[in-house]
Structure formats: C-alpha cells, structure tokens
Specification:
alpha+beta; three-stranded antiparallel sheet; about 70 residues
C-alpha cells in the first residue's frame, strides 16, 4: 500500500481534480469527492504499473513529505 499525499481541488463548475505533489504522473478527477478518491486509487495503480514498465524507481514517500 502506498500512502501518498493527495490534493483535492474543488472545481468552479463542480467536481474535483486530484493531484499528488510527490508523484507528478498521478492526476485524475471525479464528479464527487468519493468518485475522485476511487479514481485516485485507480490512477495510482496505473502509475505504479507505468513506473514498473519503464524501469523507473518509484518515489520514496516519507512522513516528512506527507
């Protein structure tokens, strides 16, 4: 399990954009907070697969970075 800080930005027309400051490839959205959270989980799985496929080291996430 990866415990990464997520930023949920409420959009003016509704919905949320989700980003992660330590995993720049992780970006998604959702119409509700709950949908955005589910989509963020799916996006994280995709980013982990991307890092693995590309042979990249996954960012080290420490409590100081949370």
């Amino acid at each position: 399990m990866v415990n990464a800080p997520l930023h949920f930005e409420l959009q003016p027309d509704g919905g949320y954009v989700v980003t992660c400051p330590v995993i720049p490839e992780l970006i998604t959205e959702g119409d509700t907070r709950e949908e955005a959270e589910r989509n963020a989980s799916d996006a994280l799985d995709a980013v982990i697969e991307l890092y693995s496929d590309m042979g990249w080291d996954f960012p080290v996430i420490t409590k100081a970075r949370l």
